[in-house]
Amino acid sequence: MDKRENKTPEGRNVLDVPVNFFRSVRDTQPTEANLYNLLTSDKYRGRVERVRSEPNPEKQSALKKGLPAFTVSGTFPDSKADPLCYHSGLVCLDIDAKDNTDVEGFADFKEVAAKIPYIAYCARSVRGNGFFCIVPIKDPMKHCEHFDALAEAFAVSVTDAAGHGVKIDSSGRDVVRKRFVSFDPEPYINPCARVYTVTKERAQPHGTSTPEHDPAAVEALRILAQSYVEAGRGPETLRTLRIAANTCLQMETDDRTTLDVIRVVVAVCERGVDITETREVWLGIGSALAYEFGDPAGRAVFHALCQFYPRYSEEECDGLFSDLVSRGYTGVTIGTLFHHAKAAGVWGVSAREAFGEYDTSTDNEPVKHP
User: How deeply is 280 buried, as exposed, middle or buried, from its count of CB atoms within 10 A (0-12, 13-18, 19+)?
Assistant: First the structure.
């Protein structure tokens, strides 16, 4: 093990993050574990060594599949990459011996890894023939773009004397990929590794900038959300909200996604519920709205949903949303918003069932029609 201190100068260990832990690769109900503890523990040494010493390939595979597993890139509800807001800020690179038979001195790859400033961890994989490396990345929302850049960098720059580059297994692009616990008596550890900033941008498929929606329904959603934002939190707030909601909910449209978002906005604003209480949730909801509705509808909804956060900042929300829109990110779907709305108790029945139709013809308190 590298003898340097296990923290950055700022007191932060990049490997000290929560991850999903599974009792076996078939386990569907993960618990939370600390990545640094998993990487530095010898708890599974005996089981890993049994895998490595088994000469029968089928028996070896069966032993391997019985090992616990974990997700290096974070904690993900239901083992799904959506939402991506629970990303650890780390990418795992698998470097298999079978893919690098032409690389001279491959068995000593850890010595090479120790010279690469952005590698935080390098150790033998379960079977003992290959290696896996962990790299901190700048932008978790661009996991795949960082991975692609790393794969290209290793192939071009991490070479032997004959110029053969190191090949990385493409499976690491999967954000929620499970990897088995392993053991290496002398891993390379650099918990204050440099953050990798390079990305390899991918061409966005045609027509995926934002999903198609009924333009009238989206405009109604924008009006609803903007009306609430402009109303503030005074005594007229709910009345303004209900006037806008009445217009939206009476629309004749088959755009169920937009109507469901309208329903969430109405429920959150009427009940004063903060569904953006952590930065991870905030990023996830913003990403989903940026992808689903873009500007200006997504921005208006984002502000409406963020307003109940105690330290809400209009400027900060605007800046984040602009950044998300500019990225054209498509990895977080609107299901992220519905997931957090359900967790906050503002999801369950249709918009019209939940809120009815409001009489807004007088200044009296709105009345729900039977």
Answer: middle
* Three-state SS letters, 9-38: CCCCCCCCCEEEEECCCCCCCCEEEEHHHH
- 115 exposed, middle or buried (CB, 10 Å; 0-12, 13-18, 19+)? exposed
Single out the residue of 52, 73, 72, 70 nearest to residue 61, CA to CA.
52
Give residue-wise pLDDT tens across range 287-307: 889 888 888 889 989 998 998
CA neighbor of 290 nearest in space, from 337, 341, 339, 328: 328
Residue ranges covered by each domain of the chain: 18-189, 215-368
**How many residues in total does the chain contain?**
370
CB 20 within 8 A of CB 153: no
Q: Residue 317: helix, strand or coil by DSSP? A: helix
pTM above 0.70, yes or no: no
Pairing of strands 121-124, 131-136: antiparallel
